[in-house]
Fold this sequence. Notes:
The chain is an all-beta fold and 127 residues long.
Amino acid sequence: QLQLVESGGGLVQPGGTLRLSCAASGGRTLNAYGIGWFRQAPGKEREGVSCMSSRDDTSYYADSVKGRFTISKDNDKNVAYLQMNSLKPEDTGVYFCAAGLYGGCTRSLGATGFGAWGQGTQVTVSS
């Protein structure tokens, strides 16, 4: 069974950068999975931030992070990443990575199809 562990969160000032990592183990190699990053801010519903298709590595981004965040993965290391630049206070929240075997990632950034989830890592953007 695939297990995901996020890391890389922390406290950063507005305009700063963070790179989140999502280490996968116990399943197939990462290239078999669609990868998604989601976040949940206090008092708000979870929202999709970005995802990458397992078929052709096509990636999608929420409008709020487009141009600032980049999703990637290293299939050899079985690690997915979310590079976050020009961070804003509204980016604060718990960030989760998710994986769906041969699927999961759609333009709508929905959570359906993602069967494995990490425990989350806190990102706080504040001065």
